[in-house]
Design goal:
Subcellular location: Membrane
InterPro entries: Nucleotide-diphossugar_trans, Xyl/GlcA_transferase
Strand order of the largest sheet: 3-6-5-4-7-12-9-13
Number of domains: 2
GO biological process, one term: protein O-linked glycosylation via mannose
Radius of gyration: 25 Å
Number of strands: 14
GO molecular function: glucuronosyltransferase activity; xylosyltransferase activity
Low-confidence stretches: 90-98, 274-279
CATH architecture of the largest domain: Alpha-Beta Complex
Main location: membrane
CATH superfamily of the largest domain: Spore Coat Polysaccharide Biosynthesis Protein SpsA, Chain A
Mean pLDDT: 83
Helix content: 25-40%
CATH class of the largest domain: Alpha Beta
Number of helices: 13
Strand content: 15-25%
Length: 370
Amino acid sequence: MSDQDIFNAYIHDYPNEIKTLPCEYNFQLGALTKSEELCDETPLALHFNSQNKTVRKNYVLYNEIRKEIDGIDGSDLRRRRNVQRRSVPPSEAKVRRRDICTAYIPNQQFRILPNSLGRMKKTAKLCLVTQFSKDRMHNFMNNANNWKLPISAAIYGTDLELMEIANAVKLSNRQDIALHMVFKDSKEDDAIYPINYLRNVAMNYSNCEYILMADVDFMIYGDVVSLQDQVRELKDSQVLIIPAFETANENITDVSQFPQTKDQVSKSILDGKVDYQKNYEPYFVIKQADCPLYDQRFGGFGWNKVVHVLKLQMLSMEFIVSPTSFMIHQNHNVSDSLALWRNDIHYQKCLHKLKKIFIVETARKLGMEI
């Protein structure tokens, strides 16, 4: 409201610096305008920002223009600017060429729009905190249909991809899902998926006392009331681990075929239908105020969760396991990040190097000897 008064104030103080444009460059639309009466020229600039302003006799024409503009991907319009902004000085480029690992660190400068859809006005006791892009939208919708408590999710993509995600989530008619848009503006952003950056966004903008940090492709099962009781009983510096499983049959994509209760999971394990991997990086519930930020230098696939859990251990957090809740992985195609990890030996070496750097840095900050 009144956001343009700064211009009015400037015009008032410096009237000689204002040039009046012909009326066709300021053709107003809307129910109260008199542009069609006062301006006989063909409109060259239409003034509207919503469908409500295309109500005049040329509604069909102007509304088609509005929809065409609505469909423009702003990411494409910004690419040229980003190329110029991110150009590397020659001296810095030489240093970067010597350090091949720089190419595997994701971008950490994004435009973000917190609470672009939904907002938790009151602090919730327990929330699911996650992140995803368009290719995992169906996984998120499966989770939203199953998890009935509030959700804080960072979504990543181009303007059009984020709008598509937001429109799909709107159809759920849930008021307790908060989406935080993180805009992918350039082709450089396609290189390494900034998973830890997104986790931090989802966590920082969640209005929740306790957060369940989980990836979007894991379905959460178990008695929610019992889980809430366990969360209430958590003591300071305690983390509640939610056991994670995956199906032995990778062809199962229908989540309705997953075991829904602890008894069913136990039977599935005995029947050889579910594999449990003890080296899974655990997903957990933690008090938001106690949860350190994820290291944003880690992206894509490899060590991004491991180093965060390692930091919790170095902070002397106590790990306890929920006796009632569990998670099952939703099968999906191999991600680009995983394919890069499997096929690029330099990527693997660089992440191992970064992991060692992380351990040394964290130990030094905590005054620990390695």
